[in-house]
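Protein data:
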Amino acid sequence: MDPTGVEAAAQRFRRTGRIDPACDAVRPEVLASWLRTVDAGVRLDTVGARYVGHEPGRSAVAEADEVFAAFFALVPRPRCSVVLVDHDGVVRVRHDGDPALAALLDGVLVTPGFRCAEGDVGTTAAALLPHTGAIVRVDGPEHLHPELTWLSEAAATVHRTDGAAPDAVVVLHHVADTDDTTAALAGLLADRVSQAVADRAHRRGLLVHRAFTAARDTGAEWTVATDGDVLLTCPGVRRLGHDDQRALADLALAAAVLGEADAGERHVDLPSGHCAGLAVEPVTDAGVVAGCVVAGGPIDHATRAAVPEAVRRQGSHVAPTARRDYAADLRGGDHSARLHAEARMRANRELLSPYLRARHEVAAAVGRRRHQLLIGEAGVGKQTLAVGQFRRAHPSAMVHVVDCSRIGDSASGPDPLDRVAREPGDRPRLLVLRQMNLLSPVAARRLDESLRTLVAMPDPLVVAGCIDTASADATRPYGLLLRHFHETVRVPALRYRADELGDIALSILHGLAGGRSLRLSMQVVRVLEGYAWPGNVRELEDVLRYVVARKPVGVIQAPDLPPSCFAHRAPRMSMLEAAQCDVIIQALYEARGNRYKAAEMLGIARSSLYRKIDAFGISYIG
């Protein structure tokens, strides 16, 4: 193929939309793509890539990200970029080896979340792949678009065994740097991603086993790892007593199942009375906690390392350099006093973390397969909480969502739960009843009859009802259904979760931005924490979606937020906040102003205690 002939043919095609039939410099498949480009109405004087959003659940994003990262770790500075493009032509993942090439790709919007399909930007290697069925190369002028003629591409198909539409792995070079190995590299990476997708069912266990092996190799005396189903232990743990083994296993299991594996070291009091220093490390897969590894060993507080003289002379004698054991009084002394102290710590922890308490209650109800009623303001994430905890306990579960506001009043109409009853019961099932507060009296009676039959089956499903009110009212029509629920869980509004609001916003932003580099500045976090959020999590998602649509990459600053976030109202302390304030003041008084000890007594992080002290305006307590 003569590059000069291809470039001349491309220029004629741009001017006239026709090509000389005698010209053999252009491959038939490239010519067919040019014709499809013109038929699609693509303008040849500008690149038409446009942002459509990032939906990682529809493509092999996690697998491609891992494979690409491994490739760039082996070849630190390759003069290429590697991209995953889904079947719709949307870029999902991109890894770069050459900063200059990355800047050029950003200029033509070959970035995650932008669609670069044939009908948007013209001929590309990913666009030719569905029509050829083999590894495809597109070089320079074959792109037809003037702004893409500097680019050389090679694409290969990511074969899917789960019935999903195939994706494509594309290796991008500058025309001056291309070589004969580009097509082979694209095929190799596509095969690796295909194999990773095929191993997706075992991915969670492999990640946990790999993390367990790495923690054990560090020399930790005790190592425990779990993915929520399987527990891995080392010989050192098996030599402990049964109660101590159970305590370590429960710590790892709670962190893995409840998604609370906060990385860092902590001291834990074992049932035998010993104190253990443990490092809790989450095992994540695409930003989701897939398991947890707990590694550490015993700590003897009686034998402390001697303080070097040079350190002592620098003022370390003012306070002890070793970690103080605030739980020492709980292991000894009167049994009733110890039980009272433990109950007070547990009550304080629940009071200071209302959403954490709600999540624990939902997880416990799911584990016992008990029906639960979730109460809270609209948009606080009741359905998301119930479905998330159920899927953590049962990854292969089936979830049915019924909108109670759409159940008709006609007594002769179809059974509102007929489709749920006809589903096979070989897998765990969850039935979510949304907006029960909008049920009419007739609809409530119909739903009650259907629900009574459904829960009486040999293999009953778990039912989660959602009411968009602050409290349940048995006099409303949905009061007829309250007898079906074993537990009632109150989900707090977002304004009571100021400590977690930054993490919640980052989690939502990660889902909206995908693989793009998008962060929140500390000023933005403070603005979000100062807003009342009457629409709760749903309003926060709308605000972040507004920001992402106007700023695809970079650090989000306060001017990027909508004006509604700056609506200021005088803060008014609620009953819950007043109770939290009283608990903190009491803890600081008992700790004689020692904030570290007060946080230890309350069972919360010191950073959370500092934020609450500032928010409530608590002065120093000596």
The CA atoms of residues 425 and 458 lie 9 Å apart. Residues 200-217 form the longest helix (18 residues). The longest strand covers residues 288-299.
